[in-house]
Design a protein that fits this description.
It is built from four helices and eight strands; from the N terminus they run ββαββαβαβαββ. With 182 residues, the chain is α/β, with parallel strands linked by helices. The longest helix has 18 residues, at 72-89.
């Protein structure tokens, strides 16, 4: 019976070394007033304890590692606040779909184009496709005309990301929103 060994690799963490967790012999210390110098780890810890603050490793890959004398709780709070703000500002772009048929009427076309306009204004990409069923495949030119009209109707707020092309029994085009000014 063969025994399998598993290798566990440590996942990269955003953990910061604080006080006695710092493993370097000497560190470059920056305090709250901006003064700095290179100290042994024992001297740096004594300096931080003297001010009743923490020695926090800011840049572990530097030579020697850079440590800051600050309140660790406040540092963590501000870091979490910055990360939350970044998550709030980021927007994931989704791909919304709008489906047509070769004989789609003008009212339906306008209605679906209006929805696509809303998607684009929200910042999402739009894939519009014409679905060909059965003998509809002989009307590829109607499908191309519909997609061209669709692109033209949205040309003021969108650019063509992928030109109209056949994908099996459907003809598709992908539109991306134009960059907003300011």
């Amino acid at each position: 019976m063969a025994q399998h060994r598993r290798r566990f690799t440590a996942a990269p963490t955003n953990r910061v070394n604080v006080n006695s967790d710092i493993r370097a012999e000497t560190v470059r210390v920056v305090d709250t007033e901006g003064a700095h110098g290179i100290y042994s780890i024992a001297d740096a810890l004594a300096l931080a304890q003297e001010r009743q603050l923490d020695l926090v490793e800011i840049s572990p890959n530097a030579d020697p590692p850079v440590c800051k004398i600050i309140d660790y709780g406040k540092y963590r709070y501000e870091q979490q606040k910055r990360e939350k703000e970044q998550r709030k500002k980021s927007h994931s772009i989704q791909l919304k779909e709008v489906r047509f048929r070769p004989h789609t009427d003008t009212h339906d076309f306008d209605f679906k184009t209006k929805h696509a306009r809303e998607f684009l204004e929200h910042g999402d990409k739009v894939r519009a496709y014409v679905q060909f069923r059965g003998r509809d495949i002989i009307y590829k030119d109607h499908g191309k005309d519909i997609l061209d009209r669709f692109v033209e109707a949205l040309s003021d707020i969108a650019k063509v990301d992928q030109a109209p092309r056949m994908e099996g029994r459907r003809m598709a085009v992908i539109l991306a929103p134009l960059k907003k000014k300011g």
